[in-house]
Recover the amino acids of this structure.
C-alpha cells in the first residue's frame, strides 16, 4: 500500500478515539481507498 511504501501505518482506533476525547471532538473512521464514511466526515449537526 501507499502507507507501507512511505513506512507509515494507519492510526489505530484507540489512538484516534483518545485524541478526540481529549479535545472533546467526535471520532469517525473513514477510508479514502474504499470511500467508507467519507461523506459522513463532512456532515455537521
Amino acid at each position: 500500500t501507499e502507507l507501507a511504501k512511505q513506512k507509515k501505518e494507519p492510526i489505530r482506533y484507540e489512538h484516534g478515539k483518545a485524541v478526540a476525547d481529549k479535545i472533546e471532538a467526535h471520532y469517525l473512521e473513514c477510508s479514502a481507498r474504499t470511500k467508507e464514511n467519507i461523506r459522513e466526515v463532512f456532515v455537521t449537526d
Observations:
- The chain has a mean pLDDT of 90.
- Residues 2-41 form one domain.
- The chain has three helices and no strands.
